[in-house]
Amino acid sequence: MSRRLRLNAFTMNVVSHIVQGQWTRPDTRQRDYTSLEPWVELAKLLEKGRFDAIFFADVIGAYDVYNGNRDAAVRRAVQFPVNDPSALIPALGLVTEHLGLAFTLSILQEHPFSFARRASTLDHYTRGRVGWNIVTSYLENAANNLGYRGLPLHDTRYDRGDEYLDVVYKLWEGSWEDDAVLADTERGVYADPAKVHEIDHRGEYYDVAGPHLSEPSPQRTPVLFQAGSSERGREFAARHAEATFISARNIRGARANVDDLHRRLVLAGRRPDDLLVFQGLTVITAATEGEARRKEREVQEHLSDEGTFAVVSGWLGTDLSAVDPDAPVGDLRTNAQQGIVKSLAEAAPDKTWTFRDLIFSIANRRIVGTPEHVADELERWHVDGGIDGVNLTYTTTPGSFEDFIDGVVPVLQDRGVVQREYHEGTFREKLFDGRVGPRLADTHPGTAYRRKAVVA
Question: Under a CB-based contact definition with an 8 Å cutoff, are residues 385 and 281 in contact?
């Protein structure tokens, strides 16, 4: 395959993730999220279907914008309650051999020194199959939970993120030389002290002495995902990300987003193919068109309007209960997710978008139909939209993924669009089909912190 489509299962360690209200159905295991068994079964299923990764979203605050409180989010289980996704990684790594294991952690959430050790530990336990989705948070409640006394300004969060990444690059890439670990049992010397280094970072937000407490893991730096599509978010992606998650409203919007990211990558001194772009999509499929439409009606019957308004209010940082749905979105200024509004303009530059359009486009970004129809549409997103992969959102779990794997994956495999077998190596090597080694590509800025071997 010259350019294949990659598949991630988009999920969250919660009752209800993206499509609100479906947790009430008898044919889903969303209410079992506090047990390990459903997650283990899902990971095995995804590896059987040759998915590239399971991708865990996360938040560290409650959705309390709608109606000015968190009641709707609590009542409808809107990403609340929520458990730590990284705690699932060792268990899922133990029952799979190839599946990538990507989890979200905010740069506001944990000090970079302790996070660097957590990520290295997980990369060791999974034999190099960990990915990190870098987020800067968008919920005011999240910042208040962490002692920030209010959410830092949007661009300031990214400034902090840039320094956060510099710190972890220094720890992962530069603190230990490649040959520092000796494991010499005869001399009783495990590591050479001269080849383990402090990083002595002094910055605006962090002071970190080092050295890194973990020895180098298979990837050193985990595969770096990112999900911001604002102007500042795309700048951040062009500098740091190896894969980015977009939520384009249509194929035209996806192409505009991809082209913009490629332009920014070149300006940052990287190659366009250094960054894989994943589009978020929901697929509802069945053997016949009529059965697929029946499944879609069932989703609509269980859809929670209140839950949908609560989650979108949180994303926008705007209380939709106090907004006329037919009012134009315009150039909405928000300290939450700015990329949502930008994606509207890219989808239809000449259209006057209303809040009703916005909510409808989020709730209905679906592909519905037979496996052949779904495969046709995914190829259009892939070829015409320029995306490299899909973050597949579920309506029921594991049912949505089972339907996709049993129906759509074989069609895509027969067309040579998705992989039949995994590439050997780490998550990074698998994701880039061996074009990149286990560590960061040479064009990535994190490589600047690697220590050059000293020749006697």
Answer: no
